[in-house]
Amino acid sequence: MVNRVWQTYRTVLFCRLFANYFALILIPVIVASVLTHFFVVRLIERDAETLNNTIMQHFSEQIDDTFGTLERDMVNMLSAVSVKSFLRSTGNPAELQQRYESIHSLMQQMNKLDSGNLVYKSFLYFANEDLVIDGKTYNGKDEYFREQYPIKDTDVPSYFANFTGKKSMVFAKSHTVYERPPYTRDIVSTHSNIAVMMSYPFNSSSPDVYLVVNLDQDKLRERLGIQEKWVTDTMLVNSDGSVLIANGSSGFRPDSFASMIRTKPEHDLFLNDDGKALTYTKSRFDDSWYYVSMIDLQTLLKPAHTIRMMTVALLCMFIIVGGLVSYVLSRRLYNPIREIKSGLESQHLGDAPGLHNGNEFDMIKRFSRLLISRNKELAQTVDGMFPIVREQFIVKVLLGEYRDSLSIGYYAKEISFPYNPVAAATVLCIEIQYYSPFADQLSETSKSFKLAELKEKIRKLSPAMIWVCQTRSDLLACVLHHEENRLCDPGETANAIKQLLQQPDYKASIGIGKTVHAIAALHQSYNHALSMLKYKSLQPGAEICSEQREWKGRISGDSFLSAHEVNRILNWYKAGDCKSLLQSVFDLLDAGMRSNTNAHQMKNLAIDVLNTWTRAVESERNDFDISVYSEFFAAINRCVTWEEMRQTFRDIHGALFRTIEPSDRKQQFAEILAYIQNHYNEELSIEYFAEQMNMSAGHFSRMFKEEVGEKYVEYIAKYRISKAKQFLLETDLKIDDIAEQIGYWGRNSFIRNFRRYEGITPAKYRMMHQS
């Protein structure tokens, strides 16, 4: 909370500095940016539009002049005396010479007309005669268009349909012309031309002759193009929206042109539905013609966009610089307050109500008062922790961490612990072992409460000088001071404590250590008491373990199996006589009870028996992992009484030597085969089935072969191949799909296994059986 408040004040200071920066610097920058956007950028946009309109106007005038010049040349050609005199000639022999002269005159005039850059070829087409005249020759119509001006077959009908009616500077549809030497079939190249037609007499609906000027469409497109980056296409469009000539392939739509003509004046930009910008200029040559250019707005307005981006970047830079400067200044101005608050924060004062209200000075005063109050509470808490600290001090002395009198005296002084360094003392170790029914029922918290209650009862026996501490979770240590204890004899004190330990839920064993005459030697008495606990028995109830003769007699006897007993256990197992295995353990336990064998010796013997059992099982089976065996050994070590030892061996015997009847085994393998047949397209690991039958993978594999007659892997592979053959013959699935359907990860492994069992690939198998 303190950090959050400090951060809030720092944020307020930062906001104040940044607000001043915003008012003094950022607002003028923002105003300048807005003015730049609305005036300078808009001015650049208008200049770009004006430049585009100027170019379009100049371009349209040039094209109009080109078409005007062509029209004048065509009118002059048809108005020439040669045309009129040729039309007046009747073809009589007397006029034949004059007719030839007129033809040659017309050819010379046609040569002048062909000299234009755009003209590919021009000729005179006589409507009432089988005659065509161009600048080089004159022929009949069929021969001329077959040899001199061969047109693509698909364009012929539409081309000759133009030679009807009155024609006055009419543009025909484009057509393809083959370039080849006359009277040969070797096509050198092709041309895409546009025919411009004019008829004579000019006002006659049934003209005598047509002047045809074929314009090279590629050159016309080149002339029509505008060499500016922002113009993507230029078109010559009729009033109905049909494109006469285009300098690109922009996908112009007539409906867009009609909408533009209807809604926008000349030279204005029009955005169609496709997001493209159009502008048009009306032709001065022909009122039904329009020059339309398609504009790339991004390129046209690139200077304006650049200035806009630079303005935004400059504004962002000012904001970032202002923020950084405000942040640095706020940190420097807040350093003194932060240092004081950091010092108070190290005290971990928490979030008291009203602690962070008001200004910094009031907050520091409240923090100071709270710090004094917390120190008082801390002193009280330390006083309450003295018993725990002193108990830990006793534990360290007993464990031998403090062995010399100098270190013991130093640490005792630190915790104000009173003691006599040369007093006689004896250590009693009390081991608590819960019976198996209660060990699982009681939680660790309940067990801790029971030990705490037991420590208080023991202290009450002699409140003056019995030190009680817990060295392990299941072990209490009592230090008896002989001079000041009313129960001077350790044996009497152990008997008094024994009465407190007669409980139904646990067994208590009291180990009596030897008496020492200095606090620094207490660890020796403690270790001796621990060694006495090895002589505890497996009888229920509380007991005392000391160096009396009766306890020394309990260490006699053998704690391990003889070689003869080990061989006998192995022979019983090989013979399948598992009942004798368990009975032999019961006999050992009965013998131990009769001879009053101690728990340590009996558990060593039991562990030796378990080692022999596991070695026998592992010689033929590998059904258990190391964790299972570890739990078996731990269960023996947890046994408290003879009966628990018997029950533990019953459980271990049932787990190790359980048998499966042949009928049950057949049923289990039948269920496994059914599962494989229903889930053959899934991952079928042998470990999964081995775990289900509580076997190792190797043992399961051997049992599978005995029951089924073939190896586990072979069975699954053959079953999958049989399903694959069914898919190959009954479906049209691809090889990859079939491999996935039957459980293979890729086609390569599937093909390899199919060839292994069938001798051919899946594709050949399908082809052979389907044919």
TrEMBL record:
The chain crosses the membrane at residues 20-41, 309-329. Pfam families: GGDEF_2, HTH_18. PROSITE patterns: HTH_ARAC_FAMILY_1, HTH_ARAC_FAMILY_2. It comes from the Bacteria. Residues 670-768 form the HTH araC/xylS-type domain. GO terms for molecular function: DNA-binding transcription factor activity; sequence-specific DNA binding. SMART domains: HTH_ARAC. InterPro entries: CdaR_GGDEF (IPR041522), Homeodomain-like_sf (IPR009057), HTH_AraC (IPR018060), HTH_AraC-typ_CS (IPR018062). Coiled coil: none annotated. Keywords: DNA-binding, Membrane, Transcription, Transcription regulation, Transmembrane, Transmembrane helix. PANTHER family: ARAC-FAMILY TRANSCRIPTIONAL REGULATOR, HTH-TYPE TRANSCRIPTIONAL ACTIVATOR RHAS. This is HTH araC/xylS-type domain-containing protein.
